[in-house]
Design goal:
The complex is a heterodimer of chains A (about 110) and B (about 110). Chain A is an all-beta fold. Chain A contains no helices and eleven strands. Chain B is mainly β. Chain B contains no helices and eleven strands. In chain B, strands 2, 4, 5, 9, 10 and 11 form a six-stranded mixed β-sheet that branches. Chain B has a five-stranded antiparallel β-sheet with strand order 1-3-8-7-6, with no helix packed on it. The chains are: A mainly beta (about 110), B mainly beta (about 110). At the A-B interface, strand 4 and strand 10 of A face strand 5 of B.
Chain lengths: ~110, ~110
């Protein structure tokens, strides 16, 4: 049974729409992350959070934004989706000071 | 130069074969090392951490060579279920934005 949940699993949406990708974890982890992965390519960190009210941009520039109002919840929002946003988005979490990351099953986003 | 470099493969091996993957990292200050497994269209899952003394978990053995800055994964007696992409992952300092993923090495075990 998954301890970190992402919804939706798949999303096809038109250009210009606003979307929010949901990520929730039940492990009480302080650190949460969003990665972007294109097919056959490595994961790139786009956002991370150390805890409630903490958000930082990652190594890969992204037009998305995130929020961390509750420990267990780390949603990612795209205000105006474009075809270049088509990718897989993976949410992960880890304990503060811990090395192991637990990943969600991902959201495969297609913008048409 | 990429932080982590892996041979993308694919490696196609028969069942029962032994296969080894290597990975190099560029930051000599890197502190922690891992192998993750990612099945097609699934999320990465931690396979094993890699320690300086080397470590073994069943058919899987991981080695770290800090002097040469490379990490290896050895899989003995390959099973069909081992078919996946194996990601080399390196962690640098204490910040959250320093877990670097390789592109992965794709393994297919053939009956």
């Amino acid at each position: 049974e998954a301890d970190i949940y992402q919804t939706p699993r798949y999303l096809v949406i038109g250009t210009g729409k606003k979307i929010t990708l949901e990520c929730s974890q039940t492990m009480g982890h302080d650190k949460m992350y969003w990665y972007q992965q294109d097919p056959g390519m490595e994961l790139h960190l786009i956002h991370y959070s150390y805890g409630v009210n903490s958000t930082e941009k990652g190594d890969l520039s992204s037009e998305s934004t995130v929020s961390r109002i509750r420990t267990e919840h780390f949603p990612l929002t795209l205000e105006s989706a474009r075809p270049s946003h088509t990718s897989q988005y993976l949410c992960a979490s880890s304990e503060l000071g811990g090395d192991g990351y637990t990943f969600g099953s991902g959201t495969r986003l297609t913008v048409v | 130069r990429k932080e982590v470099e892996q041979d993308p493969g694919p490696f196609n091996v028969p069942e029962g074969a032994t296969v080894a993957f290597n990975c190099t990292y560029s930051n000599s200050a890197s502190q922690s090392f891992f192998w993750y497994r990612q099945d097609c269209r699934k999320e990465p899952k931690l396979l094993m951490s890699v320690y300086s003394s080397g470590n073994e978990d069943g058919r899987f053995t991981a080695q770290l060579n800090r002097a040469s800055q490379y990490i290896s994964l050895l899989i003995r007696d390959s099973k069909l279920s081992d078919s996946a992409t194996y990601l080399c992952v390196v962690k640098g300092g204490t910040g959250a934005n320093n877990l670097f993923f390789g592109t992965g090495t794709r393994l297919t075990v053939i009956p």
